[in-house]
């Protein structure tokens, strides 16, 4: 089976100063950086005196053309002293200190105020005398250059005023950048760490350079990002562009451009419309406000109209970027034709108010973007979703075989990141994702999630019954789950 179809991330490994470095899917990292900055090495552990290393790959426009920018910050600054640390320094281990510590532990307010006051005064005195300033780092604080002779990459080196943060920056023309440049820059960052920590400081350590550095906790719907969406490459690409326009209002204003105010997503149930909306909100860094039918439609005369007006009244006063999702949009604003019953009149009134409110929302508050989703686009009147109200209309179809394979890959990779640990493999190494994509014909992303849930549950129950070692989830078990779910839906 080829690496391309593997659910487990694969990468290139190289050695530097005794450390093993794995560079995972560098081509994907560079491609993603064209749209949004990509952060790497977020969860790595470093030798003293280095406390933190931040590494970012992004894309910038320069007069001579677009470039990929590699930036890193290597920090030797101590974390701010906590109240507990200050107390321990003030109290010490002499008899008086131990006595005061016991009285603080017992809740004595006088002892607590006394020690905290002494600690605050000591910290203030140290700062005033300049004694809190760190010693000069091992490396020179003068600006300089680090270079990789293999690919000819040069990184400028500067320091902040305190001398505790070393910054490295390098640029490569976007059309010329390759994974070798990323590897070279990682090497320069490690070289900077070695200069600060010593020539043998990295020996025996292992670093993974990956944009999939997911936290070891299951990803919730609220945490979903566009990176995690599988099988909808064109839609994800369009949403990334919308996010860029939203995050750069100065560029929009300079050109007199108006970013999309509304997005309509339509397609069969379970294809990920709501998930895409949440992912877009996270991509923008926006609050997420979901509006459902019961929040609008009211059995009392005039109640529905008041509700929709209040929603938009609130939207005009949001100070933070906000994405408002009207889920199951057709059930909120479907035109009921010319019927004279109260329900039809209420729906027509809500739809009319919605049109009026959308007309000037973006001028009233450019921080707000509206997304509407529906499984039945034919039930929504064309005048509601015309350009100027909903500028972007996206069909979210059922995934094809290749897209289903990608959905399996993304979901399984997320489960591996969240649950696997030393000595525990959740999935077998020989999964054939292409075969899973073919076998799951007609399934949506929601169906594939259910396939995985069933297998996970079966394994957990087996583990609970036997209390012993359970084999990882196999290809055969996944195919059986696909067939079982297909049989139920068929």
Can you put this structure into words, describing what you see?
It contains 16 helices and 14 strands. The protein is an alpha/beta fold and 490 residues long. The strands form 3 sheets. The chain has a 6-stranded antiparallel β-sheet with strand order 3-4-5-8-7-6, covered by helices on one side. A 5-stranded parallel β-sheet has the order 11-12-13-10-14. A 3-stranded mixed β-sheet has the order 1-2-9, covered by helices on one side.
From the N-terminal CA to the C-terminal CA, the straight-line distance is 31 Å
* Rg of Cα set: 28 Å
Calculate the mean pLDDT score and round it.
Answer: 79
Strand content: 15-25%
Helix content: 40-55%
What's the tally of helices?
Answer: 16
Low-confidence stretches: 1-5, 131-139, 213-220, 335-340
Shape: globular
Largest beta sheet, briefly? Answer: 6 strands, antiparallel
Largest beta sheet: strand ordering: 3-4-5-8-7-6
Order of helices and strands: EEHEEEHHHEEEHEHHEHEHEHHHEEHHHH
**Annotation, overall tally of beta strands:** 14
Sheet/helix structural class:
alpha/beta
């Amino acid at each position: 089976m080829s690496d391309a179809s593997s659910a487990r991330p694969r990468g290139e490994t190289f050695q530097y100063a005794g450390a093993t470095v794995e560079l995972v899917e560098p081509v994907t990292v560079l491609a993603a950086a064209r749209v949004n900055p990509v952060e790497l090495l977020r969860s790595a552990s470093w030798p003293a005196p280095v406390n933190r290393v931040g590494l970012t790959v992004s894309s910038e426009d320069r007069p001579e053309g677009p470039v990929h920018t590699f930036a890193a910050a290597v920090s030797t600054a101590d974390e701010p002293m906590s109240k507990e640390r200050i107390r321990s320094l003030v109290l010490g281990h002499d008899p008086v200190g131990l006595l005061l510590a016991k009285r603080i532990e017992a809740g004595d307010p006088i002892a607590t105020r006394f020690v905290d006051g002494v600690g605050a005064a000591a910290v203030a005195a140290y700062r005033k005398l300049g004694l809190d300033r760190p010693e000069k780092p091992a490396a020179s604080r003068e600006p300089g250059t680090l270079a990789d002779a293999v690919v000819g990459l040069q990184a400028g080196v500067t320091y902040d005023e305190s001398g505790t943060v070393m910054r490295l920056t390098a640029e490569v023309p976007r059309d010329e950048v390759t994974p070798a440049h990323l590897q070279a820059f990682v090497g320069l960052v490690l070289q900077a760490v070695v200069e600060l920590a010593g020539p043998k400081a990295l020996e025996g350590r292992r670093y993974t350079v990956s944009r999939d550095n997911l936290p070891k906790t299951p990803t919730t719907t609220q945490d979903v990002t566009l990176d995690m969406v599988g099988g909808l490459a064109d839609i994800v690409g369009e949403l990334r562009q919308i996010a860029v326009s939203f995050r750069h209002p100065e560029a929009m204003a300079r050109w007199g451009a108006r970013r999309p105010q509304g997005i309509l997503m339509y397609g069969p149930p379970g294809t990920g419309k709501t998930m895409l909306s949440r992912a877009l909100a996270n991509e923008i860094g926006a609050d997420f406000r979901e509006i459902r039918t019961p929040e609008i439609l009211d059995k009392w005369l005039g109640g529905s109209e008041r509700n929709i007006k209040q929603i938009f009244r609130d939207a005009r006063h949001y100070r933070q970027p906000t994405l408002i999702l009207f889920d199951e949009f057709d059930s909120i604003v479907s035109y009921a034709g010319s019927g004279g019953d109260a329900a039809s009149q209420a729906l027509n009134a809500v739809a009319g108010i919605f049109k009026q409110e959308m007309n000037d929302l973006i001028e009233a508050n450019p921080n707000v973007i509206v997304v509407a989703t529906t499984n039945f686009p034919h039930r929504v009147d064309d005048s509601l979703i015309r350009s100027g109200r909903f500028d972007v209309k996206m069909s979210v179809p059922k995934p094809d075989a290749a897209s289903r394979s990608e959905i399996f890959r993304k979901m399984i990779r997320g489960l591996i990141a969240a649950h696997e640990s030393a000595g525990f493999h959740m999935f077998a190494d020989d999964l054939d994702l292409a075969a899973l994509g073919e076998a799951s014909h007609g399934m949506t992303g929601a169906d594939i999630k259910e396939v995985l849930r069933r297998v996970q549950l079966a394994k957990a129950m087996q583990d609970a019954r036997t209390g012993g070692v359970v084999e990882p989830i196999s290809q055969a078990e996944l195919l059986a789950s696909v067939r079982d779910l297909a049989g139920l839906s068929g």
